[in-house]
């Protein structure tokens, strides 16, 4: 039997990476493509583990990952898309070579929805740094249309991508503000947050494009999320201060100014003209600096086991699934 045609072990794959033997890795990936699905999945998991520690090591290999995005096995397609998300978040320009392939996965309505979600996320991260390579009319249209029809997990990633496009080049969304406003009441907090953030960024550069949808922002001042309330207040403050538009501060901002959440209260003070709101509030740079922390807080686990520290959902099981210790009395309904 000729072992040279068989895929290498994942240990060999890591050894090639450690040695910088990219030609050997490319040949190995070609053999994986001809091998069994579980072998391809194992290889992609091994590469993802490397990418999580040092994503730039995989930069020279990104184009070799493209065939895995159209693999017959959807698990392989999903793992490859997740790997590209990891790379794009840290080294977005390294992923430029596979932007067309990711856009095809996003546009394919028959594709597994998690693959579409991860493809949108990867495209968004690239768009933050290279919007001209990603934010074509077709891609923007696919992202916007999906907000009305896709699963919640997909909508969150579509909204993420739209926020990223806005941060990369607000002008790319100046004609999509009606869509952003129409979905500011989405059931998912992350969707509302990302879209209100995108609207805020667009307002910083094109206030006239957002001003006609001011009512949707005013409504978000009563949102259950302090981060959505804060972004809505920030966008309204940008409109209030902008030249050439008529957008007086709504009375509801007075309530948000006394918000228990500093994120919301600071931005309401900005909208009401207070001088202590901070120079970065109401700017594209300021939004860019604060959005990752906001998302991290929104997605943080609800609770941790008092015994072993494992993250627990709320509501959740009465005992910790990891150590079996009771989690304590439930909170108020």
Low-confidence blocks of residues? 329-333
Summed over residues and divided by their number, the pLDDT gives a mean of 90
Largest sheet: number of strands, sense, barrel closure: 2 strands, antiparallel
Counting helices, strands and paired strands, the structural category is mainly alpha
Q: Largest beta sheet: what is the strand line-up?
A: 1-2
**Secondary-structure element string:** HHHHHHHHHHHHHHHHHHEE
Q: For the terminal residues, how far apart are their CA atoms?
A: 65 Å
Number of strands: 2
Shape: globular
State the helix count. 18
Proportion of residues in extended strands: under 5%
In short:
With 333 residues, the protein is mostly helical. The protein contains 18 helices and 2 strands.
Overview of this protein structure:
The chain is mainly α and 333 residues long. It has a domain at 193-298. Helix content is 61%, strand content 1%. It has 18 helices and two strands. The protein has helices at 10-19, 22-34, 37-53, 62-65, 74-90, 99-107, 113-129, 131-134, 137-149, 152-168, 177-182, 189-205, 207-211, 214-220, 226-241, 253-257, 262-271, 284-298; strands at residues 303-304, 311-312. The protein has a two-stranded antiparallel ribbon with strand order 1-2. A hairpin with a 6-residue loop joins strand 1 (303-304) and strand 2 (311-312). Helix 10 (152-168) packs parallel to helix 12, helix 12 packs parallel to helix 15 (226-241) and helix 12 packs antiparallel against helix 18 (284-298). The radius of gyration is 23 Å and the shape is globular.
């Amino acid at each position: 039997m000729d072992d040279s045609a068989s895929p290498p072990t994942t240990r060999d794959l890591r050894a090639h990476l450690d040695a910088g033997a990219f030609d050997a890795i490319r040949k190995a990936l070609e053999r994986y493509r001809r091998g069994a699905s579980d072998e391809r999945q194992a290889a992609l998991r091994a590469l993802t583990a490397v990418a999580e520690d040092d994503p730039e090591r995989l930069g020279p290999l990104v184009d070799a990952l493209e065939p895995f995005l159209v693999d017959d096995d959807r698990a392989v397609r999903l793992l490859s898309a997740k790997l590209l998300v990891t790379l794009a978040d840290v080294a977005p320009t390294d992923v430029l070579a596979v932007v067309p392939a990711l856009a095809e996965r996003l546009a394919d309505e028959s594709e597994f929805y998690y693959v579409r979600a991860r493809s949108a996320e990867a495209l968004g991260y690239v768009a933050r740094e290279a919007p001209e390579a990603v934010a074509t009319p077709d891609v923007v249209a696919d992202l916007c249309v999906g907000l009305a029809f896709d699963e919640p997990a997909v909508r969150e990633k579509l909204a993420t991508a739209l926020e990223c496009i806005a941060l990369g080049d607000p002008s790319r969304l100046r004609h999509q503000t009606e869509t952003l406003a129409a979905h500011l009441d989405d059931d998912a907090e992350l969707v509302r947050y990302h879209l209100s953030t995108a609207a805020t960024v667009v307002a910083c550069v094109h206030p006239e494009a957002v001003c006609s949808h001011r009512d949707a922002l005013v409504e978000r001042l009563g949102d259950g999320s302090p981060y959505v309330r804060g972004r809505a207040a920030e966008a309204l403050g940008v409109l209030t201060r902008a030249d050439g538009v008529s957008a007086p501060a709504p009375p509801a901002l007075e309530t948000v100014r006394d918000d228990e959440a500093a994120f919301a209260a600071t931005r309401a003070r900005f909208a009401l003209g207070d001088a202590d709101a901070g120079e970065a509030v109401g700017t594209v740079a300021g939004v860019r600096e604060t959005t990752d922390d906001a998302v991290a807080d929104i997605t943080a686990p609800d609770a941790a086991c008092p015994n072993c520290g494992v993250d627990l959902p709320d509501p959740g099981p009465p005992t910790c699934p990891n150590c079996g210790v009771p989690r304590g009395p439930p909170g108020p309904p």
